[in-house]
Amino acid sequence: MSAGGLFPAASSSVLPVGMDPSGAARGCSNTTKNDQESELDDDLTPSKLGTKEYWDDAYQRELETFKDIGDVGEIWFGEESMGRVIKCLEKENVPTDAAILDIGTGNGVLLVELARCGFTNLTGIDYSAAAVELARNVLEKEDVSNVKVEVVDFLSPAVDLTGFDLCIDKGTFDAISLNPEDAAGAKAHYLKALQGALREGGLFIITSCNWTKDQLLHMFSQGFEFLRELPTPSFQFGGRTGNSVTALVLKRVR
Ligand SMILES: C[S@@+](CC[C@H](N)C(=O)[O-])C[C@H]1O[C@@H](n2cnc3c(N)ncnc32)[C@H](O)[C@@H]1O
């Protein structure tokens, strides 16, 4: 697989806290990034959100709900996160035929939005077969064709994932960083896979709620150059201001 206005009313929350009704370990903490004094490469507390079983179950449920009532389910970081990415593509003058890879596409709603904005060379991958089935169903319902969506584990792809002009990650690196068995190894694999997927000069747009700007820049320092930070909502608490979400644009360099 080398590079070659869906805003449902019954959609999701701004942060993905609703993903885990039990209130058990979640993907995002609610401390502000400015409050954190963690080391640059600190590991997160392992969580079930770092397992394939979790996502298989979650998307199996979402797939059934979609089939029942047409709700696409969780859009991580809310609808505004998609607008932020699309605005960035416009600002960076990304051509509409750019080869775009959505890493861990989930329900595929970002692909629908990108297609609606005229992008024609779209690929979504996810290691959860249920997510891929959901994404295909959503694309079909929205009458979007010519988008490739495949079951692929980004950390050990069984297909050739190279030559992309742009890779987008919305919440997937966060999930991968929560791997309960070997988070450091998973992050290292991710970096290698990303370096392989993006052509030199290509862009990487990452949205994270688990890592600060400094941490992301540290983790993606090899082979990437920082271009800009995208504005994300900030809030005040106890007289301090912070952001719960970080969105960065990086460029693949030698
Ligand atoms: C937090 S969800 C984000 C989904 C989607 N990007 C969004 O913004 O709504 C994380 C996604 O990453 C996928 N994922 C996690 N690890 C993966 C891997 N190694 N390869 C491919 N997909 C993965 C999960 O199945 C899930 O769909």
TrEMBL record:
<dbReference type="InterPro" id="IPR026635">
    <property type="entry name" value="Efm4/METTL10"/>
</dbReference>
<feature type="domain" description="Methyltransferase">
    <location>
        <begin position="98"/>
        <end position="230"/>
    </location>
</feature>
<dbReference type="GO" id="GO:0016279">
    <property type="term" value="F:protein-lysine N-methyltransferase activity"/>
</dbReference>
<dbReference type="GO" id="GO:0005737">
    <property type="term" value="C:cytoplasm"/>
</dbReference>
<keyword id="KW-0489">Methyltransferase</keyword>
<keyword id="KW-0539">Nucleus</keyword>
<dbReference type="Pfam" id="PF13847">
    <property type="entry name" value="Methyltransf_31"/>
</dbReference>
<feature type="region of interest" description="Disordered">
    <location>
        <begin position="18"/>
        <end position="47"/>
    </location>
</feature>
<keyword id="KW-0949">S-adenosyl-L-methionine</keyword>
<keyword id="KW-0963">Cytoplasm</keyword>
<dbReference type="GO" id="GO:0005634">
    <property type="term" value="C:nucleus"/>
</dbReference>
<dbReference type="InterPro" id="IPR025714">
    <property type="entry name" value="Methyltranfer_dom"/>
</dbReference>
<protein>
    <recommendedName>
        <fullName>EEF1A lysine methyltransferase 2</fullName>
        <ecNumber>2.1.1.-</ecNumber>
    </recommendedName>
</protein>
<dbReference type="GO" id="GO:0032259">
    <property type="term" value="P:methylation"/>
</dbReference>
<comment type="similarity">
    <text>Belongs to the class I-like SAM-binding methyltransferase superfamily. EFM4 family.</text>
</comment>
<keyword id="KW-0808">Transferase</keyword>
<dbReference type="InterPro" id="IPR029063">
    <property type="entry name" value="SAM-dependent_MTases_sf"/>
</dbReference>
<comment type="function">
    <text>Protein-lysine methyltransferase that selectively catalyzes the trimethylation of EEF1A at 'Lys-318'.</text>
</comment>
